[in-house]
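User: Quick sanity check before I run a bigger batch. Here is a single chain. Can you write out its predicted 3D structure?
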Amino acid sequence: MTLYMPPHFHVEDRAALVAFMEANGFATLVSHGAGGLSVSHVPLLVEADGQELRLLGHVARNNEHWRALEGADEVLAIFHGPHAYVSPTWYAQHPSVPTWNYAVVHAHGKARLMDEAGLHDVVTRLSSKYEAGNPKPWRLSDQPPAYVAGMLQNIVGFEIAVERLEGKFKLSQNRPAEIARVIDALEKAGETAIATLMKG
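Assistant: Done. Predicted structure follows.
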């Protein structure tokens, strides 16, 4: 499976794609197996080490998706960035049609399940990342050992070795004369994240 990719929306800069995944870590995880398609929505950690790229996360043990992960020929993690409707009324050139601007990265790879030590590390790192802005961050290490042990038994950790990245940033590049107008209209509509991305 591949992503429809007109050349002007294609992003190949690996460092930019990794940074995008790190900034937009809540991903859609898709795999296909004997039971058909499995889909989960999970936060993922991104680990880049030279040319190696790994994604780390976990799902509830009651979520049957974990059983399909290791046996899947390929796993796809979709990282979604900002997006917004673009009205043709914003353009100077007519006739024109409505569209949608957005940014996504697709990470394809193979998954494997991890042991309890790896899972403990993933939970610690995920909570540290998303608790960082809190005045009194929640820490796994502060929880009672029996509670931690029980919690870890109810989730399953996994690692995806990324084999292929696809980046598509559809940001009006096909209408360069209109980009400034679209940015202005998006900012006025409160869609500042996608407008900022368009500014590059």
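The two ends are 29 Å apart (CA to CA).

User: Great, the batch can go ahead then.
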